[in-house]
Amino acid sequence: TEYKTDVVVIGGGGAGLAAAVSAHQNGAKVIVLEKMPRLGGNTILSGGAFNAASSPRQVAQGIEDSIDKHFTQTYEGGDKLGNPELIRTLVENAYPAIEWLESLGMKFNDEVFTVLGGLWPRAHKPSTPLGTGFINTYQDYINANNDIEVLLDTEALELIVVDGRVAGVKGKGLKGDVIVHANNGVVLATGGFGANTDMIEQYNQSWPSLANVKTTNHPGATGDGLAMAETVGANLIGLENLQLLPLGDPNTGSLSGNIEQGVENRIFVNKSGNRFVDEGARRDVMTKALLEQEDAYLWVVLDKKNYPTPETKNNFNETIEELIAQGRAFKGDTLEELAEKINVNPDNLVKAVEEFNKAVATGGPDEFGRTLFDTKIDTPPFYAGPRVPTVHHTMGGIEINTNAQVLNKNGEVIPGLYAAGEITGGIHGSNRLGGNALADITVYGRIAGESAAAKK
Ligand code: ADP
Question: What does the note under cofactor report (predicted)?
Answer without folding.
Answer: Binds 1 FAD per subunit. Binds 1 or 2 FMN covalently per subunit.
